[in-house]
Predict the structure of Probable peptidoglycan glycosyltransferase FtsW.
Amino acid sequence: MAGREKMHTRTSAGRTDRSRSAGSREQSRPVVRRPHAMDYSIVFLVIFLVGFGLVMVYSTSSYRGSLYMDDAAYWLKRQAIFAVIGVIAMFLIARVDYHFWKSRKWLLPVYYWGTILLLVVTLIFAAVSHGSKRWLSIGPLRFQPSEVAKVSLIVILAIYLSRNVKHLRTWKGIFKSFAMMLPIIVIVTVENLSTGIILFAITVIMIFVSTDKWKPFFVVGGVGIAIMVIFLLTQGYRVERVKVWLNPEQYETGLQTMQGLYAIGSGGLFGKGLGQSMQKMGFLPETHNDMIFSIICEELGLFGAIGILIIYFVLLWRFMVVAWNAADLYGSMITVGTIAHLGIQVFINIGVVTNTIPNTGIPLPFISYGGTSLCFLLIEMGLVLSVSRYMKMKE
């Protein structure tokens, strides 16, 4: 197809020039490539991770479900419902041309201000849970708006960058892009520092990939770190988490970290066997949520844990193929944002479980229990699959 856009890279000056000239035509020349089959390798990997997650949710929660809910499959059933809803949403969105989400200029303000309004409403009306206002209830529906914000930020920034690619050649344009996303990041960070860090990192990566400038990112990084430190110091429990991270054995709240490490160590190379964990018997809190990777290591051993990591890496690699061969900068940015989200969240979760970084509540993508997280992550997968339907195919 003539006039195909390439996303900006730093590999060579020639490629950067082609990327700039193509990006300048983005608004005037719509993509006319005919859709083809989606990337089914991504579908297979995602379905496998979701299925594996359901198995592990049952394995890690059956004891607690029997004890407190009189139903060993209590959390499995709830997660399965969200999994079915999420997979259906993934395939439906994959069938929609991803250009639909930016087809009208008024859609960007709707996404942007709608997301901010939802987050502000959460700060005001959400019930306090574990010391933070993160969950919003609408009738029987209870969800976490910060998960909505992740998808919204990726789509909003992808639209904005694709429409303003010329401005990304200047410091002013780069800082304006960051300033646009700052309200969403700050509002989320007020009650959820870890998710705020993820949103900030997604923003940095998407803008970094879309421009050939790199010096402004030192300033942006400094400002971002300063903001995160301010939010860290304004909440005593966040400072305590850093202290627990450095010396978990000296604090009562370090029990979760210590028990998680015991679970990892006791699994050995091949694990104790699926369903044979001892730490899930009330010793390790949140086994089906944030600490589920510890039980994976205990039951399936080092080989099982490495196998899951390999699947994540393969999935990210397939995303990179889609991003590189996307029909335009907009599609590339959607995929790059998803790469950043998935990769960072996997890193943070495993970093927490292994005590590499301070403890924070980030689920392991597709595997940890959490309906909102799973559904909106699958929606992101649908967007990437839609991009894959229009990417350049090898002759």
Q: What stands out?
A: The chain has 13 helices and three strands. The first helix runs from residue 13 to 24. Residues 326 and 391 are 4 Å apart (CA to CA).
